[in-house]
Design brief:
The chain is mostly helical. It has one domain. It contains two helices and no strands. It is elongated.
């Protein structure tokens, strides 16, 4: 059994899980827990987007050809200048 089977949960399974959660935590506590879970997911997505945005900008610059030269290229240029001095 692979992990991809876990993604295909049917309506019956969701109702069963919801009913068990309702019995375990009660009608008053469950909405509070789901609200907290939603806030946690929102904060996680916000953090991921904060990290991803600069990386996406840098990738766009590289695609456009406006990215700064790599250190490898600078070393090669420096060596070429030194060879001309000798």
């Amino acid at each position: 059994m692979t992990g991809s089977h876990l993604l295909f949960i049917g309506t019956t399974e969701l109702l069963l899980i919801g009913g068990i959660a309702l019995l375990l935590f009660g009608g008053k506590k469950l909405p509070e827990m789901m609200r907290g879970l939603g806030q946690g997911v929102r904060e996680f997505k916000k953090g991921v987007n904060e990290v991803k945005a600069p990386l996406d900008e840098e990738a766009e610059k590289e695609e456009a050809g406006t990215a700064p030269a790599s250190p490898k290229g600078k070393v090669a240029e420096g060596n070429a200048k030194d060879e001309g001095k000798e």
